[in-house]
Amino acid sequence: MTAGLPVRVLRLRPGARLPVRATAGASGFDLHACLETPIDVGPTPVLVPTGVALEVPPGIDVQVRPRSGLARRGVLATFGTIDADYRGEVFVTLYTIGQGAAHAVHDGDRIAQLVFARLADVTLEEAATLSETERGDGGHGSTGR
User: Fold this and answer.
1) How far apart are CA 81 and CA 126, in angstroms?
2) Residue 70: φ, ψ to 5°
3) Domain ranges (residues) in the chain
4) Is 9 left (phi over 0), alpha (psi -120 to 50) or beta?
5) I need a labelling partner for 12 at 20 to 30 A (CA). Which of 35, 54, 79, 132 fits?
6) pLDDT per residue over 106-137, tens digit each?
């Protein structure tokens, strides 16, 4: 197996954990909470610190995504993007759904995952018209159920 493109990770506080793949076949790297005291998560979104910052090479897209195990319990992380020129701490926005859902986040808990992909190199061009397709301008729900 060849080495991947390096992404530098800086621990901002003692106890911060580096993102890591749970298994060799995992597409995402688990992000861990870096907390002095637990945080209670409910339906109002809260920012959870990870204690790490990234140096992402230009042309790489980094997305923060929810963990399926937490989502199954009604704890969701919002999708987010970490731009290549951002050098601050990575935070994860967590909230709960479902009646009476509550969740306590403790130091070291896996709270989200990072997924890396190459960005498409595109140029936007203003147009007077667009080509015709079978779908046309049909929006949300226009292709079926």
Assistant:
1) 25
2) -75, -40
3) 26-118
4) beta
5) 79
6) 999 999 999 999 999 999 999 999 999 988 88
